[in-house]
Specification:
Layout (H helix, E strand, L loop, with lengths): L2 H12 L3 H20 L4 E3 L3 E8 L2 E4 L6 E4 L2 E8 L1 H7 L9
Antiparallel strand pairs: 1-2, 2-5, 3-4
Helix pairs in contact: 1-2
Amino acid sequence: MKKRELIDKIAEKTGMTKMESEQMLDALFQTLGDVLAAGDKIQIPGFGTFNTKVRPARSVRSPRNGEIIAVAEAAVPVFRPALALKERTNRPNTKQTT
């Protein structure tokens, strides 16, 4: 699903205009990003938890020339779905993509 399709569904479910739905969605994503950038966790009951995880520094091999490259430590966003979301997405009648 693309962002435009998500905006359309939100507008349909809430009765908001598409422009209001887009502003709300943009504000939500901006806020999620700001909270995660600050190192905080976001818990949404029945949906899941957004958090950041520190990926330690490591050495990797370049596939282009085989040279060893040092990759710095990095904070990466992670999402852990709630049990209710897992159960909802694992129903037999849902589309499964591979």
